[in-house]
Amino acid sequence: MRMSKVDDLLAPVYGRVIPGLYSLATSRAAQRLSAGAPKTVLEVGVGPGHILAAVAKKNPMAQKIGVDISRAMLKQSRRTLSKTGVDAHLVCADGVRLPFKDGMFEGVVASFLLDLFQEEKIPDALREMLRVLAPGGRIVVASLQVSNPFVKHAMMFAYRVLPTLLGSRIRPIDFRQFLEGTGLRVLRDEEIPEAAGTRVLTLVKVVG
Fold first, then answer.
1. What is the average pLDDT across 80-99?
2. Which has the closest alpha carbon to 151: 171, 167, 125, 132?
3. How many angstroms separate the CA atoms of 68 and 32, rounded?
4. What is the mean pLDDT of residues 21-44?
5. Tens digits of per-residue pLDDT, 132-160?
6. Residue 19 pLDDT > 60, yes or no?
7. β-strands 198-205, 184-192: how paired?
8. How far is CA 16 from CA 13, 56, 129, 192, in A?
């Protein structure tokens, strides 16, 4: 089953359950992104729209765009943003083929998205985020981290063998191993134990 179709099925549940579990990580990712005071913001894998809503509170003057491969997720985003009075443009698009010009955004954020990609696609997604990032801009990536080796092993086993709809698509992964050759360097690396071991990486574009 294609990722977009699975996300369409999961969107109603995701929009209600996941933000409650990761509200702290969402707030922290928005804080890290807004620290650079970007005038243009892109969220890749916008999901239910909570990060764009949080960015709007911290940086209300920024132009905000969200993309998702799932139309059902975009529908969730529109509801969230409408309720919070946030003006944002939403686009149905794949994270490895962003329909935007080079250097168009001063800030790019992806929360619990790259954890879903096949490993060989992760560098492609990072390079695509880098392509649309303006010089001096920053990328913020929130990902799932598990310090307990037994829990991590169990999650990786579930990811490999369980059907997608049983929740096995997401798994803990260290994105540092995929940064070589992408033109990105780590500005800040923070783990949030209170948010189920979430890790928030702030990346900047290497110029020259």
1. 93
2. 171
3. 21
4. 86
5. 999 889 999 887 665 555 445 444 544 45
6. no
7. antiparallel
8. 5, 20, 27, 21
- The one-letter amino acid code at 188 reads R
Domains, the chain, ranges and CATH? 3-205 (3.40.50.150)
One-letter amino acid for residue 200 of the chain = V
Tokens matching residue 44: 């890749």
Total residues found in the chain within this entry? 208
Instruction: Please name the residues in contact with 180: beta carbons below 8 A apart, sequence gap of 6 or more.
Output: none
Distance CA 10, CA 18 (A): 11
Amino acid at 13: V
Strand partners, 66: 43, 90
